[in-house]
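Lecture notes, unit on protein representations.

Consider one protein chain, 222 amino acids long.
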Amino acid sequence: MPSIQDQEWNRAFFRMLPLASLGLGVVSAAMGIVSLQRQSSRSHRVYYEAGQYLVAVRHPGMLHDIREFVQPSNPDVLAVYSQIGPDVWANLDFVCRNIDYRRDRGEFWQFPSETLEGYGDCEDSSILFASLIRNFTNGHVALGSYQGYGHAWCQLNGQVFETTYTQARAVPDPEDYRTFVLFDERVTIEVWSGALDDLFRVRRNEATKLSLMAEVSDATKG
């Protein structure tokens, strides 16, 4: 009798058969994803293969190495950076003032060029900011939690840089930020094994998180 694992694999395989009418390329891509799922104990959003952390955070069936999102050499990023220069706070202020917060419907990560259209959520603005400052610093995108809610920000030499404020300012409550994962265009660092997978299990309530952050932001004004 086949094992439970083999039975699950067989069911997954036969679910893929209708894709044959769409062409072998689609079948190959779909089977590749199933293969990764079988090899990984991670959630359906996170896969690990050959040193790469692959995430399903855009279109269904599409995987990206998490490092692909940070793009210091992107022409749109360089065009902005050339006007600001190597100033961390000036780059942060640009992102805060020019990127309006728009929460995802589901989970959809944007590339920097998309965020430069003027909107994005916390990971989108953090990825853009990291892309800008990676032209002259060793900053990273940080994924983790803020007061218990899933969040993203940037981290440089241990300092938290919040990209969802409406203007650049120091974070008054760094102790409320808990880092799970750091990444840039070169490396992905899990604070503990499986941290990236754990991240997608952290509760998400954008209205509550944003109200908490607004209170902190208001408290620092004046």
